[in-house]
Amino acid sequence: GGVLVLNGSIVQHANACSVVVHHEAPGGRPSRTYARPIAVLRRPEQGAEDERFYTLVALSIVTGRRHQIRTHLSNAGHPVVCDRRYGWQHLGSDLPWCSWNFLHRYRLAFEDP
After folding, report:
1. How far is CA 79 from the centre of its chain?
2. CA–CA separation, 78 vs 73, rounded Å?
3. Tens digit of each residue's pLDDT (9 = 90 or more) over 21-50
4. What does the pLDDT read at residue 48?
5. Residue 35 to residue 60: CA distance in whole angstroms
6. Chain centre to alpha carbon of residue 57
7. Is the pTM of this model over 0.85?
């Protein structure tokens, strides 16, 4: 797979949640994240005919906004596993196998201009 570019303005709300909008918004700050899929996990749902798919991705943050990764992934329809703020819709099916926010840094690098 290729690299997915996630763009948008991140708007901070009073309740500390952020939202991505794809237009100019008052108080919005431009943001960009690159996402590259690494692997896909298919997991059958317990007691249901449905199954869930999870994607392991490598991310690169171009801008550094608060909650940027979590906001971008949720807005793209792929919230972080066990994200109580931005992925609450899936929390019930995530908790039985993962009790923490499944967002992990494996490398940290900065460009020195």
Report:
1. 5
2. 5
3. 666 677 788 899 999 999 998 877 666 667
4. 62
5. 7
6. 10
7. no
